[in-house]
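Treating backbone geometry as a discrete language has practical consequences that deserve illustration. The amino acid sequence and the backbone structure tokens for this protein are reproduced below.
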Amino acid sequence: MIVDSVKSYLDKSLLIIEANALNSKNVNWKELRQHVYNKASGAKRYEDILPIYPYIFEQIDDHHGSLKYKNKTYSWNKNDGIKVNQTIKSATKKYSFVRSEKIGKDIGYILIPGNNDFRGQLIDSISRDIKNAIAKINDKNIKGWIIDLRVNTGGNMYPMIAGLTEFIGEGRVGGFITPALQPDGDWIIKNGTFYVDSVKVSPVKYKGHPIKKDVPVAILISSYTASSGEMTAITTIGRYKSILIGEPTAGYTTTNLGFKLNEYSGLNLAVDYAADRNGKIYPENINPDILVSEGDNFEVLHKDQKVKKAIAWIRKNR
């Protein structure tokens, strides 16, 4: 027996999940409901059923989704046995601001961390920070770029992409795809400005030394490159003279949508896939073109194995 108010909350959750979850069609909902109700048997308070939600997310194969309840998060922690890179794990906590510097005289380096702009209130300021960091070091001698997304654990993808438009290129550079494989928002760059379909994301313009369209760009990724960090990496795939170097990403390559349950809780569900400019869908994670495990050194870049591989590639392709 479940108290009526608690059962209503659970029923509302399951209806929303069934109607919107990315993998809903792969689920036997009659069977799942029965299992959920069995687990909730005897529940008298909302708090009694919260531990069931990670199970629900596991059954719908959604490790990107979550239940938010009174500032606590309940989600499924999918663990594929990925080896933890301790250097990058520590770096995700240390590097929270955009950082740029020259490597030698001819290569530009920019590190872009994740952000917490989930409400979209800092899009212009974040994209401006990125463009300013690029302009600060760019000059006529720069013949290639390294974009470091290794510590980019996610946040709002829009200012990241808007800040990198000079590198990503013009036209459609990716987009969201529904489970029925229909477009659900194209990522488009026009005259250096980022749009989702026809909606302008940020008006901030780049004001530095011009960047050549065919400049070689190496993107560094890791198992901590997640969610919006992965979306940002996807926009570079298919670009002429670009390459992904590092380790496979975290595998949060879906877009989430929020659904309110009551005044103090709501669901975040994976609802769309991400696709690159050529239409390839990334349902799990992104694999590097050149695999380089470990060897990270954020303090002394010329000793960093991924950076060294990127430099070698850039000098062959400039």
